[in-house]
């Protein structure tokens, strides 16, 4: 029993306080503000909107933990989506079979990982700043995507893709199930594997990690590859949800994913941050936008409120650290 | 001479690359190596250069700003509304309004960063979302087309008809850009405040021990970028002859790439106005050249992204390895 | 025995502090401290890490404000607190341990930095700055290219720049915080020469240090701090390093030579003609099971470079390394660790340990395979392993999940040793294991080293403090200019013999 409690408290941790408080605040405010808020419809819409942003945030999380950033995530997702679309169209378009989709998806994940591999190699071997490397990769991929699609939509996919974007199993949307699976995968990766361990250590001090026998180059390359692969999964989900691929889809998510990570207590300099609080932060962001929608506001106001929420959490963190020093001085 | 090359390696490398590209484009296309095209380039790059020199100051002081482009959108929109409410105004009142609004938005960033100890990337990502979200919410995404006449009419400062009948023009944005570039250059290289900014970005703790006012540094850096963003916003509205609330969305990362290409360092203490201008120009020259060569506009960005990626990779690896004498010279 | 000198009727102090108190987050950093400096004297301010030396300097220079009640008399004026600007304008200069220089700026700007200060913007006069810089360097008898950025110069020359900067203004008193830590002997000699010149020209110099051997001879008085309180002020005449150590720690140490013969033990490491041009040349030695081999020499003698090659982090150009009689050639430190080589870095703060991360993670980082179960890392196994090592090495910690930076230097070093012991090494290389460790805690580290050797580990102990290797190693090698220039048996020579060889 004790060890179970320990485990629960370990899961909860102190870094969950920020998003946890925000979660409670959001629930209370909207329950009072809008009678429809505490209904299945709200949570249904959250459950369907969460996965795209969530998967991209997972892709952003790993590089941030190493002290970097991957600004290419949204366009990596687009390019991966294009890869699937290309393979499906090559194999009959609307009439393509599930096998073609499966192979296409694997190809897409490969493409995503390849973009990550390239960034990881440059970052690991030249020590160029990840912001710059991923920024130029982003500009490149955006250009590549626009070049391939001439700025238009690609659509016309087989009908069996519908459920992946819109279906449910036992009332739980399939995209959400995929997200939860990926969240758990990332959690295990970060807490229970050598790669995850190395990710945190590199984030705090890459040279000291190298002196301690961690293969820092390998870890960096793998981190960006996994980030790219996760983008690809997001890209496939987006393809299924919109039944089309357009370069620029989800572009506005880019900085939101960074915001979600910081809101979830991830250290902006790397080295600290856990998946579960980040997941909770994502739920809060999505509840906020759904709640505001119910009250008649649009997504843009929600975006602004997200920014305000991030500042509020940072201010609280600042105030609490001040308060602590103040208290100790007195005692 | 070696000393100059050594201390400005990035600028010389960029200049060399720009010359190479220009040489190639002059041979490959007829139109590239004409005065008219050169001035076109300047006219179109003006807004980005104004942004770039502003961002440079923040990078030198060790910060980063993601919000400046949407801040410029906020400025141009609010300025357009204000100008309408005061019955039109003119260039003077327009610039004053834009400058005040821009500096205020920059000061909000500085306040969050200095007073509440939020690191600059977090603070400016938050304000990026706030500025853009509120702008889109209150404007409902509606553009403004009926701007005052003085703002939309082209101001040509110099024009000359060439022998082949084409026109060479220098327009107002170029003049404003030149003023901004010179002002920034004076600030960061010729004034004690500018050198304090470098010192603060280079070694914040050291600067603090010398009694440099850290808060003032943040407000000056972000205020300057705010000022430049405000001016750039107004000039962009003048250039485009309309105010579209999301027109500048996404510009921040392009400008950041150009500034860093020009040798500024994320982390502070390094960067020059010349490098920064060359960084922007290199990207616009490439784009311009590709355009003249008849390359599909959709391929531009891809090629530019690839060029930046290669440039960053090379600048981090081999400059020192390719030119070892530069290091040895210093190590006596 | 030297006794604190009481109120003396000598010259009026240039600087006099009374009632200095300072608290950080509930911890009293300074308790009612007094401190005097006479005009033109050379004064030592000694104390262990955390004794309050740096805090005191930061109060004198206005970086920190003391608690109310403080009295600072300086040059005929009385202040309740200083500000950086008043201090600098009044002629108080500091050469910080980290130098507080600006690497991207030119030498001229660094030296004439004061001309850039001030609240209101002015235009910069570069010509004037160059003149100031060249004049200041001339005072020191040094020529540097003042137009190059500072980052192009090695650390010793940067230190000269820092000194030159301190001399630009009308300096009346110069504080030097651990000035010799990164200098070679000849550079130190040069520095001491400069200090003498300053002192005769009427500038007071205060050395802040916990290693005083070099500066003791040229200083006249010594102020000792311990745990934020004043221990006393002593004339340096006849004071020995061991007496100072007693004053700083409040304890007495008696050291004896531990060396024993281990010739019967099998050879663990054999190095033959190892060469890496520019770093070390033609180095050969052996280390036996259970043996502690001391390597000493000045900074830049190639000690650390050899260690890094043995640890697979740099490739020797020629020569051979045998481990347990088998030739080895590592292409990374991971291979070295695998083969049983462990290397404790000299730079614990930035290379040895990952300061923000937890004690537990720092301890297991090099032996992750040992805490795996079913392919995944196990938290329980990690906790058990850490608990066991902490008990074995007698480390005092709060929680395993606390950041390692919360520990004292001595306890951090024990965790660093535990980290390498957990990899089950054959050979442990300890590079300057007592840097940043309080004098009082050093003995404890060497107790552990002795025990490890007794249990059969081969140990290479690298230190630039000759007494450390003299007392704790079985054999001592002296390195100079990348070569081994002498071998000593501590049982058959005196400490002076080795010191004479090293500092010759």
TrEMBL record, chain A:
Principal place of residence = membrane
Q: How does it sit in the membrane?
A: Multi-pass membrane protein
Q: Where in the cell is it found?
A: Cell membrane
Q: Where are the transmembrane segments?
A: 20-43, 55-88, 100-124, 169-190, 219-240, 252-269, 276-295, 301-320
- Molecular-function GO terms, alphabetical: transmembrane transporter activity
The keyword Cell membrane appears for this protein: yes
Source domain of life:
Bacteria
Query: What name has this protein been given in UniProt?
Result: Sugar ABC transporter permease
* Classification via InterPro entries: ABC_transp_permease
Which Pfam families does the record associate with it?
BPD_transp_2
CDD domains xrefs = TM_PBP1_transp_AraH_like
Q: Which GO terms describe its cellular component?
A: plasma membrane
Q: What are the record keywords, sorted?
A: Cell inner membrane, Cell membrane, Membrane, Transmembrane, Transmembrane helix, Transport
Is Transcription regulation among this UniProt entry's keywords? Answer: no
Question: Where does this protein come from, organism-wise?
Answer: Pararhizobium antarcticum
Automatic annotation (TrEMBL), chain B:
Give the location in the cell: Cell membrane
Keywords attached to this entry: Cell inner membrane, Cell membrane, Membrane, Transmembrane, Transmembrane helix, Transport
What's an example GO cellular component term for this entry? Answer: plasma membrane
Q: Which Pfam families match?
A: BPD_transp_2
InterPro entries (UniProt xref): ABC_transp_permease
Q: Name one GO molecular function term.
A: transmembrane transporter activity
| Principal location listed in the UniProt entry | membrane
The membrane topology noted for this protein in its Swiss-Prot or TrEMBL record is: Multi-pass membrane protein
Q: Where are the transmembrane segments?
A: 12-29, 41-61, 92-112, 119-138, 170-189, 210-235, 255-286, 298-319
Q: What is this protein's name?
A: Sugar ABC transporter permease
TrEMBL record, chain C:
Keyword terms: ATP-binding, Cell membrane, Membrane, Nucleotide-binding, Repeat, Sugar transport, Translocase, Transport
**Which PANTHER family is this protein grouped with?**
CARBOHYDRATE TRANSPORT ATP-BINDING PROTEIN MG119-RELATED, XYLOSE IMPORT ATP-BINDING PROTEIN XYLG
SMART domains per the record? Answer: AAA
> Which Gene3D superfamilies does the UniProt record give?
P-loop containing nucleotide triphosphate hydrolases
**Molecular function (GO) terms listed?**
ATP binding; ATP hydrolysis activity
Which PROSITE patterns does this entry report, sorted A to Z? ABC_TRANSPORTER_1, ABC_TRANSPORTER_2
**What does the sequence similarity comment in the record state about its family?**
Belongs to the ABC transporter superfamily.
**What region holds the ABC transporter domain?**
15-252, 259-504
Protein name as it appears in the record: Lipase
Species whose genome carries this gene: Pararhizobium antarcticum
